Amino acid sequence: MTDAPREIERLIELMARLPGLGPRSARRAVLMLLKKRGQVMAPLAQAMAEVALSARDCTVCGNIGTSDVCGICADQRRAVGQICVVADVADLWAMERGGAFKGRYHVLGGTLSALDGVGPEELRIPRLIARVAEEAVTEIILALNATVDGQTTAHYIADALEGAGVAVTSLAQGVPVGGELDYLDDGTIGAALRARKQF
Ligand SMILES: [Zn+2]
């Protein structure tokens, strides 16, 4: 707690919910914003208000953007035959930073987890299976974390697509056991993509 007015306390409480920020960092961040009201706080508040209204999930792949179909899905130059399956938008961003993949994506919105009660219907798995049937897909590249839940999800998708006439591959070396894509350097992701193997 601080001696700040209620509105400012509320701001600190909200900021403290951000990843990587605890109450202490949130207080420091809010204090900095208050000191730089004109240069940082007002433009930040305006940008957040705008994006809060315009942000939406791509109806095709689940990527977050500001239109119904995201920039990647709308990009005619990107190959249509390959779909790279990721758990989260952060993983899509990590793959894009690597710059090695020129196809399209499918964002599941998480991974299967019996413990947390996350089943296929809670994720965009039915939508992925529908895309394979609707689009001219030749390869599904599973770019899921090398964690138990990530690999459970990979196996589930591979089983679900058996007989669908697509190759199912997964990222190869370079992804450490227990590793998360978002923490890998760009070169490692590129190497893992190029050396992908039959799943
Ligand atoms: Zn999309």
Describe the model.
A hairpin with a 6-residue loop joins strand 1 and strand 2 (64-65). This protein is elongated. With 199 residues, the chain is of the alpha/beta class. 26% of the residues are buried. 44% of the residues lie in helices and 12% in strands. The strands form two sheets. It has a five-stranded mixed beta sheet. A two-stranded antiparallel ribbon has the order 1-2. It is built from eight helices and seven strands; from the N terminus they run αααββαβαβαβαβαβ. The mean pLDDT is 90.
Top keywords for this entry?
single chain, 199 residues, alpha/beta, five-stranded mixed beta sheet, two-stranded antiparallel sheet, 8 helices, binds zinc ion
Oligomer: single chain
Largest sheet: 5 strands, mixed
Tally of DSSP β-strands: 7
What is the terminal separation in angstroms? 52 Å
Beta-strand content estimate: 5-15%
The averaged pLDDT comes out at 90
Helical residues, percent: 40-55%
Overall geometry comes to: elongated
Ligand list: zinc ion
Radius of gyration: 20 Å
Q: Strand sequence of the main sheet, in spatial order?
A: 4-3-5-6-7
Question: Which stretches are low in confidence, meaning pLDDT under 50 for 5 or more residues running?
Answer: none
Number of helices: 8
Instruction: Output the helix-strand order.
Output: HHHEEHEHEHEHEHE
Derived structural class: alpha/beta
